## 1
Amino acid sequence: MVLTACLLALVFMWTVSSSPGMAAKSVSPPCDQHMFDSDVDNCLSEFNNSMDTSSYRDSCPWPTVKHIYNQLKFCVDDLAKVSWCKSQTFLEDKVFLGVHQTYFSLCGQVQDPPLTTLIMLITPAIIFTLSLPLLCIHLTT
């Protein structure tokens, strides 16, 4: 009987402690946005110095600066963890939005190929289409 009472007490305590409203929540420090904002400049300065050597003003620099961009991403992610701002993703988004507006604004623009390339691509299809009736006549006669 005593064993049953102890078992019921343990089950009751486990149920109460694991229920959503009663569970003790872990307390984490608040986001230190000032630390994040001041230290993110260090990450950005290294990235900006590396990007100055690329020709981002003339064309999309993406394939050649992928390694540098990944270093910036790791730096900002680590900084967000250290400053306890990982849950506030708008801070990281704001940083990368500025980077994309500055350095990768030409990457989304689609340009038509040169006229000679278009002619070389279209001419075989036109010749084949015009010669198809002659081929059909030759095959049927």
## 2
Amino acid sequence: MTGKPKLYYFDGRGKMEPIRWLLAAAGVEFEEEFLETREQYEKLLQDGDLLFQQVPMVEIDGMKMVQTRAILRYIAAKHNLYGKDLKEQALIDMYVEGTTDLMGLILIYPFLSPEDKKKQLATFTEKATKRYFPVYEKVLNDHGQDFLVGNQLSWADIHLLEAILMVEEKASDVLPEFPQLQAFKARISNIPTIKKFLEPGSQRKPVSDDKYVETVRRVLQAYHDVKAT
């Protein structure tokens, strides 16, 4: 396949949203095919397009890629967002794994019962402010640079901004005690490609609602699959 990457997923955030963020930050235009019916999903399975029988799937550079982090690493490396050497890549991987853990707590939020949502809100707010955000605050404070790694934009910066905004959507008062992260958020948000992605009308998806949850459950028809979206 040549031309624009094509993304196969639901019309919502889930595990595809970091891929959208990374492509957008790299200035790469992409197309999307939204899964709305069980038949669409089964056709992908029957055609052998889903190596491990799950989405996200991205058609890019003649490949049909699955596994979210494999896709993200490929895009990051291709577009010079993955550091200049192995040491920088290791740092980027560590920071991305941390933000991925935090985002995973928010990812399942729409699928929870109202009672469990209250508990989950308290959990990810506490972990954001006590475990994850202090790490990035210290990194930025210690090296005094604009970016997390190598003083240039990387996948780690893009992923962290996404995580910050996701947490703020649920708990708007989490950043006042982190001045470095406040400045980081403003700085990264104003990078032209990212600023464009944050504007209305972009391919960034809104907070997942009941319609999204219903679609995912209808297409996958299995709760254990839903938890992986």
